[in-house]
């Protein structure tokens, strides 16, 4: 009898259950924790490279579907481009935040 995330078919073969149908508690019992798909790909790349981030970086398996994502970011996701006004507003917010941090540190 198969167990956990595995189903035994009438012919004796086994297959993995559809994880979309498993309750969260059962997924956790199988050792899985919630994570993004990108984090799962990165974890798989680390597993493939014996836990070495340096080996993930050096990976030459360019035909692997995970290869473009191995560094923990999607190369397909558009980079955010800020307008000059948005950049100025962000700089102002950062300046105010740093000022408040300095003031809080002075009062400690």
Can you describe this structure?
- This protein is mainly alpha-helical and about 110 residues long.
- It folds into three domains: about 1-35, no CATH class; about 35-75, no CATH class; about 80-108.
- About 45% of the residues lie in helices and about 5% in strands.
- The protein has helices at about 25-30, 35-50, 55-60, 85-105; strands at about 5-10, 15.
- The protein has a two-stranded antiparallel ribbon.
- The relative contact order is 0.07.
List keywords for this structure.
two-stranded antiparallel sheet; 3 domains; 108 residues; single chain; mainly alpha; 4 helices
Short description:
The chain is 44% helix and 6% strand.
Helix content: 40-55%
Order of helices and strands: EEHHHH
Mean pLDDT: 91
- Strand arrangement, largest sheet? 1-2
Instruction: Kindly report how far apart the N and C termini lie.
Output: 63 Å
**Class from secondary-structure proportions:** mainly alpha
Q: Catalogue the unreliable spans.
A: none
Structural domain count: 3
Radius of gyration: 23 Å
Provide a count of the helices: 4
Multimeric state: single chain
The gross shape turns out to be elongated
The largest sheet, given as strand count, sense and whether it forms a barrel, is: 2 strands, antiparallel
The total of beta strands comes to 2
In percent terms, what proportion of residues is strand? 5-15%
């Amino acid at each position: 009898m198969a167990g956990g995330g595995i189903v035994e078919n009438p012919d004796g073969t086994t297959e993995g259950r559809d994880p979309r149908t498993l309750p969260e508690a059962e997924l956790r019992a199988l050792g899985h924790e919630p994570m993004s798909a990108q984090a799962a790909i990165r974890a798989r790349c680390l597993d493939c490279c014996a836990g070495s981030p340096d080996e993930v970086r050096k990976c030459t398996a360019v035909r692997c579907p995970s290869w473009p994502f191995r560094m923990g970011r999607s190369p397909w996701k558009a980079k955010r481009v800020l307008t000059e006004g948005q950049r100025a507003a962000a700089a102002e917010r950062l300046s105010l935040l740093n000022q408040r941090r300095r003031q809080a540190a002075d009062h400690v």
